[in-house]
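ugh ok fine here u go
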Amino acid sequence: MTPAGRVALVTGGATGIGRATCLELARRGIHDIHIGYARSADPAESLVAELGELGAAGHPLRIDVSDRDAVGAAAASLLATSGGLDILVNSAGTTKKIDFTDLDAITPELWDEILGTNLLGAFWVCQAFAETLKERGGSIVNVSSISATRVVGSSLPYSVSKAALSQLTRALAVALAPSVRVNAVVPGTVLSGWHERLVGTEAAQANFDAEARLVPMGRLADAGDIGEAIATLALGMGFATGQEIIVDGGKALRY
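structure:
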């Protein structure tokens, strides 16, 4: 199948890394791109026009990945529109800024929210599309985080959720083999608006300036850097499965 004949779904696709991934897939010739979103309806609609300029058809798809029934309904809608799925990118994610030492701030509701989106949400989407991905020899790319392997990041539950997502990636690579490849991209800090929303623009910029000096490549990643890595894993590297690719300019080498 040529790239133009393939169908992609990017959850969390309207903003940040997800948006950059949609655009990169379009640049590489993917014609049908479903933009998964939970709340970002307007950005999803705006992205449709940008994808159109690249020759791709964008399809906004409301999908609350933490709700298994909603995922099933969204899957049925996608399959009715496009007939199948070849590329799945699990980019939807959530977190809350909590100091790792503040255990009392971590509630059952927070665990449910973060695990429900970052871990279970990725599984529900993979489960819903497993059969069509197997039929079409598809590819899954999960968006993890460097906090999966280091005690860093926005919160303890977020770090744990991404560590679990890494293991889910390996488990699904075995469960869906040999028809479907399952890999993960592991970003470090990314200039995408995520950190600004967590700590505010001024504090985020100060953190960015301090961290950039520690990156061997001399700068932090932007969303486009991560989207490029995701598209490469999704469309190429055909004998790689169950792998995690760290994309942080080499900063993890200096922890």
